[in-house]
Write a structure and sequence with these properties.
This protein is mainly alpha-helical and about 280 residues long. The protein is about 80% helix and about 0% strand. The protein folds into 2 domains: about 5-45; about 70-280, Orthogonal Bundle (MetI-like fold), CATH 1.10.3720.10.
Length: about 280
């Protein structure tokens, strides 16, 4: 017996597949341009910008490393990213835990939760100028101030996600731990934190990618101090500094992207696990 073919469903699947292939090509094509340009000489790029290099050369990478103090900017990005993520890990889950366990009994925590939630809807452009002026008054127009800003701006969304996730963890588990002699801190560290590990991993990975790639805040806070530049800020100034040397510029972009891609490849399962577990957890 022949199966009935739904023509409409088949057409929809074909169209969806074509759109997906087109989207993948649109995403991968800039990577192709970046990679081939990074391994070309200036003469080859001038002859045919879109063609594969006749000779794959690493001179552009060596030039970036040797001529531009690249590792100084790389280390600045590492220090800012690692410091921000460590502080987010230390303080944000504790804040979310306190809010989650006291929202119903104390109005202050409920107000605090909604106050932090409101910050998600405020565009950064609204607070950009006052923030720069305020950081200047405090003498925090440096890497320390930038780390504080990253932690502060990441807190709203992270607390929102973690609070709702922690509320789905049964309080009976903590009560059982307290009967066995566990303190509040012990119950948080040994019971709650392991159970919300997927969401914590999601928050940390997403914020690590954001901090590493952030350009706007380093531009506002660090642009006058070249020794404190992060990689995105260095790459912004790279064009004028090296007189339109696109080959070296693309080589610097490729070096900066590789650590992020490696981190995301190893951490993507935690992101998916955290989001899907949070959707169905009871």
């Amino acid at each position: 017996m022949k199966k009935h073919v739904n023509i409409g469903s088949l057409i929809f699947k074909i169209v969806a597949l074509i759109v997906l292939i087109f989207g993948v090509l649109m995403i991968l094509y800039p990577f192709y341009i970046m990679i081939i340009t990074a391994f070309k000489t200036q003469a080859e790029s001038a002859a045919d910008f879109f063609a594969l290099p006749a000779t794959w050369t690493t001179d552009n990478f060596l030039g970036v490393i040797n001529k531009s103090n690249y590792f100084m900017y790389f280390s600045n990005s590492v220090i800012i990213t690692v410091s921000s993520i460590v502080l987010i890990f230390l303080f944000v889950p504790m804040c979310a835990y306190a809010i989650a366990r006291n929202m119903r009994s104390r109005k202050y925590f409920k107000f605090l939760f909604y106050f932090l939630l409101c910050a998600i809807f405020v565009p950064f452009q609204v607070i950009m100028v006052p923030l720069v002026i305020y950081m200047g008054w405090l003498g925090l127009s440096n890497q320390t101030g930038l780390i504080c800003l990253h932690v502060t701006l990441a807190s709203s969304q992270a607390i929102f996600l973690l609070t709702n996730y922690i509320r789905s963890v049964p309080p009976d588990l903590e009560e059982s731990a307290s009967i066995d002699g566990c303190t509040t801190w012990g119950a948080y560290w040994r019971v709650v934190l392991p159970l919300v590990k997927p969401m914590i991993a999601t928050v940390l990975v997403l914020n690590a990618l954001w901090v590493w790639n952030d350009f706007q805040m380093p531009l506002l806070i660090l642009n006058t101090v070249p020794e404190s530049w992060t990689l995105p800020l260095f790459q912004y100034n790279f064009k004028s500094q090296y007189t339109y040397d696109y080959n070296m510029a693309f080589a610097s972009y490729l070096i900066a992207i590789v650590p992020v891609m490696i981190a995301y490849i190893f951490a993507q399962k935690y992101i998916v696990e955290g989001l899907t577990a949070g959707a169905v957890k009871t």
